[in-house]
């Protein structure tokens, strides 16, 4: 959610912080602020509601001096995105920026106000600055004051602190929200993730939950929650984070859609050895003979990857699959059995609900596998088995290439499960692997349909509402298509299993409703076409996403046909996802919405 940056030891901290915040703006973008401390200890701050460019403008009229400082880009949880609620919050000598939610903030706030403090914002963060300032005012050294302050907090936090009168000191703390420390010869930094720190630092220390750190320009000390010093290894800056550039594309999302053939190929070549007809056990170290049930849990788009995977695991490996959105899974009374595998899917590897689900399963004695795109993320570090997607940094807030790489990874895993469990004969496994090997080419062909999809987007963009239908894995694609459309273009969109249509949603159909039907020519095609006819008979405007054989059979039942290359049914959901992404992208462009940073959203949802 929010982005955090801290710098110590710079000549001029504020421009550096601003630069790093730009790399973090995808985490939240409704307000921003920076506080800097000069060499003689004077602290000053600038805050602005709206995007980072507003802060940049404000700083042009109000430059911040000093080589030490902290900055923040916010995704509001408590209090509207106003200047006054923007971080940093200041109490006495302490300035703080925060990512997460302090759940007991009301109690803390009341206690502070009862004892005479004046709080000026509506946030859950400001009490933290007051608590630390009080502890320091009572004479505690910084380490003791941090132990006391952090001990009073309930909820989740990534925190960075700077101090008036102490230009040589910054502090950071993490519990439930990611935070890293960046190391370079002359400066030290704090950042929500490696992307912010990569251009400026050589090495990164990932704080663990409960850690806090005290930084000077030449030293970083890390402590456990009780104040005991702990060693956390410094790691080289991951190479791929430096690739987070837009190139010649208008939006990150466009770049990320077009990158898919390449990143899918990279991901698949990590998992499959087509020549040998196998899925590499070294890449996917799961022996599915010993797994009696798979439980999959994730949020949003990653959940839809799990939905596709359920069909694959059941069909190819005859493996029972439980599937939950993580925000439900974490609070269910799950029934864990010893021979189950708990699988979590997440681009960021930091999503609060998915991480909480992972921890619940771990506490229940489950073996944990995580399909993650950020190899240094908390989920990657806490899982027993890490299944990386090699999509590279995904900056557009709406997930695209991470999703198709998740599907590629899960498809390879499902084939492995079929091989391990003997439900796939060698020739069948070979057929599925060959289909996967074709995927980058097929996705590249689907991307070339962009012009046709742009035309269809002109039908969808003016609509108030849209319906997405599909059966089997195409139902999951329909769900993803509806999510992409609503989050990017703000058009209300619903997805239904096509067979559910007549159980209620058909009442929505009239001659203004675009109905996007994902109907590849597979064993459910005839059933889906019947549902399409029911829509057609009621005047609905059908946009069918199909293949050449399907297009021939659908004929003029559809107002528009998006004709995908002929693909094996197994990989069809990956290929059919591309028109969903392009449709949402172009509808958003037509509607003039912010493609890479849609309203009210943020990437990496690290609060509950
Ligand atoms: C939608 C989207 C979100 C994420 C969800 C989970 O386009 O990006 O629905 O998929 O917030 O995020 P991760 O995968 O980081 O756990």
Jot down its keywords.
Rossmann fold, 608 residues, Glutamine Phosphoribosylpyrophosphate, subunit 1, domain 1, 22% strand, single chain, binds fructose -6-phosphate, 37% helix, 3 domains, 8-stranded antiparallel sheet, alpha/beta
Q: Summed up, what is this model?
A:
This protein is of the alpha/beta class and 608 residues long. 37% of the residues lie in helices and 22% in strands.
| Spans of at least 5 consecutive residues with low confidence | none
Strand order of the largest sheet: 3-2-4-1-10-9-11-14
CATH superfamily of the largest domain: Aminohydrolase, N-terminal nucleophile (Ntn) domain
Bound molecules: fructose -6-phosphate
- The overall number of domains is 3
CA gyration radius, whole angstroms: 25 Å
Annotation field: number of helices: 19
The CATH top-level class label of the largest domain: Alpha Beta
What portion of residues belong to β-strands? 15-25%
Q: Could you describe the 3D structure shown?
A:
- The protein has 608 residues and is of the alpha/beta class.
- It has 3 domains: 3-237, Glutamine Phosphoribosylpyrophosphate, subunit 1, domain 1 (4-Layer Sandwich), CATH 3.60.20; 251-445, Rossmann fold, CATH 3.40.50.10490; 448-595, Rossmann fold.
- 37% of the residues lie in helices and 22% in strands.
- It contains 19 helices and 26 strands.
- The strands form 5 sheets. Strands 3-2-4-1-10-9-11-14 form an 8-stranded antiparallel β-sheet. Strands 5-6-7-8-12-13 form a 6-stranded antiparallel β-sheet. The chain has a 5-stranded parallel β-sheet with strand order 18-17-19-20-21, with helices on both faces.
- A hairpin with a 6-residue loop joins strand 7 and strand 8 (170-175).
- Helix 14 (426-447) packs parallel to helix 19 (572-591).
- It is globular, with a radius of gyration of 25 Å.
- The relative contact order is 0.09.
- The model has no long low-confidence stretch (mean pLDDT 94).
- The structure holds fructose -6-phosphate.
- Fructose -6-phosphate (F6R) binds at residues 299-302, 346-348, 351, 354, 398-399, 483, 487, 604-605.
- The site of fructose -6-phosphate (F6R) has 15 residues, from helix 9 and helix 16.
């Amino acid at each position: 959610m929010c982005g955090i940056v801290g710098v110590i030891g710079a000549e001029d901290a504020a421009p550096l912080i601003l630069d790093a915040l730009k790399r973090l703006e995808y985490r939240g973008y409704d307000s921003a602020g920076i506080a800097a401390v000069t060499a003689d200890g004077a602290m000053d701050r600038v805050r602005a509601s709206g995007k980072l460019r507003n802060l940049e403008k404000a700083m042009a009229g109000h430059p911040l001096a000093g080589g030490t400082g902290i900055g923040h880009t916010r995704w509001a949880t408590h209090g509207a995105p106003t200047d006054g609620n923007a971080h940093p919050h200041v109490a006495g000598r302490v300035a703080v920026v925060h990512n997460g939610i302090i759940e007991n903030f009301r109690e803390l706030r009341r206690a502070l106000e009862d004892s005479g403090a004046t709080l000026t914002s509506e946030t859950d963060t400001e009490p933290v600055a007051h608590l630390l300032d009080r502890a320091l005012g009572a004479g505690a050294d910084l380490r003791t004051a941090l132990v006391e302050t952090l001990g009073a907090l309930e909820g989740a936090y990534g925190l960075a602190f700077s101090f008036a009168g102490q230009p040589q000191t910054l502090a950071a703390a993490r519990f439930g929200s990611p935070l890293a420390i960046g190391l370079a010869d002359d400066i030290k930094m704090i950042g929500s993730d490696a992307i912010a720190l990569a251009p400026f630092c050589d090495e990164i220390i990932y704080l663990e939950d409960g850690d806090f750190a005290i930084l000077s320009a030449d030293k970083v000390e890390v402590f456990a929650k009780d104040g005991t010093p702990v060693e956390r290894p410094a790691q080289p800056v991951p190479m791929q984070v430096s690739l987070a550039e837009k190139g010649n594309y208008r939006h990150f999302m466009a770049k990320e859609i077009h990158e898919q053939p390449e990143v899918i190929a990279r991901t698949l070549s990590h998992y499959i050895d087509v020549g040998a007809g196998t899925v590499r056990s070294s890449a996917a170290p799961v022996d599915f003979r010993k797994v009696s049930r798979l439980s999959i849990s994730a949020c949003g788009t990653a959940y839809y990857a799990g939905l596709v995977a359920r069909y694959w695991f059941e069909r190819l490996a005859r493996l029972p699959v439980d599937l939950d959105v993580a925000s439900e899974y974490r609070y269910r009374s799950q029934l864990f059995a010893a021979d189950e595998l708990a699988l979590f899917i997440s681009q960021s590897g930091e999503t609060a609900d998915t991480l909480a689900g992972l921890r619940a399963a771990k506490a229940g004695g489950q073996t944990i596998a995580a399909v993650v795109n950020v190899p240094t993320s908390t989920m990657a570090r806490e899982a027993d088995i890490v299944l990386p997607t090699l999509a590279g940094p995904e900056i557009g807030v709406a997930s695209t290439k991470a999703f198709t790489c998740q599907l590629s990874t899960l498809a390879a895993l499902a084939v492995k499960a079929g091989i391990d469990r003997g439900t796939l004969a060698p020739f069948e496994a070979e057929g599925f692997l060959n289909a996967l090997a074709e995927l980058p080419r097929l996705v590249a062909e689907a991307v070339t349909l962009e012009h046709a999809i742009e035309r269809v987007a002109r039908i969808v963009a003016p609509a108030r509402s849209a319906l997405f239908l599909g059966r089997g894995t195409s139902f999951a694609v329909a769900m993803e298509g509806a999510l992409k459309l609503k989050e990017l273009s703000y058009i209300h969109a619903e997805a239904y299993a096509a067979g559910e249509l007549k159980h209620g949603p058909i009442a929505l159909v009239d001659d203004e409703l675009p109905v996007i039907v994902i109907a590849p020519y597979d064993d459910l095609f005839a059933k889906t076409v019947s549902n399409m006819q029911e829509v057609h008979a009621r005047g609905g405007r059908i946009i069918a996403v199909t293949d050449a054989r399907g297009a021939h059979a659908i004929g003029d039942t559809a107002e528009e046909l998006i004709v995908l290359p002929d693909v094996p049914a197994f990989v069809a959901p990956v290929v059919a996802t591309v028109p969903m992404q392009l449709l949402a992208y172009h509808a958003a462009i037509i509607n003039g919405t912010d493609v890479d940073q849609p309203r009210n959203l943020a990437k990496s949802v690290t609060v509950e």
